[in-house]
From TrEMBL:
Keywords: Membrane, Transmembrane, Transmembrane helix. The keyword Transmembrane applies. It comes from Halioxenophilus aromaticivorans. The chain crosses the membrane at residues 41-63, 70-88, 149-170, 264-282. This is Regulatory signaling modulator protein AmpE. GO terms for cellular component: plasma membrane. InterPro entries: AmpE (IPR031347), Beta-lactamase_Reg (IPR052966). One of its GO terms (biological process) is response to antibiotic. The keyword Membrane applies. The lineage of its organism: Bacteria, Pseudomonadati, Pseudomonadota, Gammaproteobacteria, Alteromonadales. It holds the Pfam family AmpE. It comes from the Bacteria.
Amino acid sequence: MLLITVLFALLLIRIWGSGAPVQKDGWFFAIHEFFSEFEALARRPCGTVMAAVIASLVAVYFVHSLLASISGWFAALFAVVIFIYATGRGDWAVSARQYISAWHGKDWAAASVTAQELGVSAYDIDGDDWAELNHRLVAALAYQGFERLFVILFWFCLGGVLPILAYRLIALSRDETEDADEEEQLSRVLWILEWPALRVFGLSLAITGNFSSCFARFKQFLTDTTNSTQQTLVFFVESALSVAEQEVQDPRFGERELREILHLYSRTMVLWVCVIALFAIFF
């Protein structure tokens, strides 16, 4: 059932381009607003967010259990909906192609707008410094591709619908909060959830990319707890793509890196699905 659920969810995401048809977040923020009225929760660090997340998880657990008691297929369909909801927002591949198109046309303004949509600020970059902007886009796209799907797939295989829903709700809360301390604490929780998934992902990149270079990085950062997910991920991706330090300064290489990261992630997703299929067959 795990393989069928994953394949059906990935198929729908492929058809739609993203999970947008089921990614309606108003219900969660309504719960968050409800708990924000409780002063005792509001005074605690992340108290309102955690209360909203726990309430959501309890509700999903009961619905999933009820559907499972009726039919395993109903529970699987519900899991598909939660899986799609938990994936990242937007289509990062489309954003990457839009940026590459702007780079080809040397349209700095359009490239800056696309970069901003991907969470990369170009305001502190000298005009027409394409090498720096390309490098930042690679880092942003690497992380978005990872958190959009691979973290979700990792925790879904290990724990089902609850951990992936918790991850996405915490990420949404982190992106919406205006409290710097709360943002830092929520980012720390996300880092903890991403840490084991990133190690498996790094090993996968070694298989689908440059093995010797990426595997050396994988061993180097296997037990690292000081770097952020984004920093470690860039090391993994650049080693998998055989990026030399001096090549980062070449804007033309940055474009190649942007293109190749899409293919690298596609190959890695195929690898993960094949591993899940083998697990389903033999276990």
